[in-house]
């Protein structure tokens, strides 16, 4: 049962970024399904780890694009990434030590964060790329 649904409104027009976002949606749904099915601790750790690693890789990829394009909102955008990474890493650490139970609220939070971040920060970033960076436009597709 999916909690995160990819919608056309999330498309940024940048093929790599959109593919990575879609993968994040899939990973959130996989984690959500495992939680509903009451998967064991080890399975949830693996899924959380996979989601955290993919998130870090995606953020790094976006940040490299922003630096290359001299994106003026880079620092604020990166701060948003850093806050989520810290939150997820703290949760993962606590869950690894069995200090907390992961609830469905986590996948709800991640879904909400992801959709708002894409529709706000990421689409704004890609719009800048379209207007300012000929290097980036070669890897863009039309929205």
UniProtKB/TrEMBL annotation:
One Pfam family here: Hemerythrin
Any one Gene Ontology molecular-function term assigned to this protein's record: metal ion binding
Is Zinc-finger set as a keyword in this record?
no
What keywords were assigned to this record? Iron, Metal-binding
So which domain of life are we looking at? Answer: Bacteria
Please report the stretch or stretches of sequence annotated as the Hemerythrin-like domain: 13-127
The record's comment on protein family reads:
Belongs to the hemerythrin family.
List the PANTHER family: BACTERIOHEMERYTHRIN
Could you identify this protein by its name?
Hemerythrin-like metal-binding protein
- What taxonomic ancestry is recorded? Bacteria, Bacillati, Cyanobacteriota, Cyanophyceae, Gomontiellales
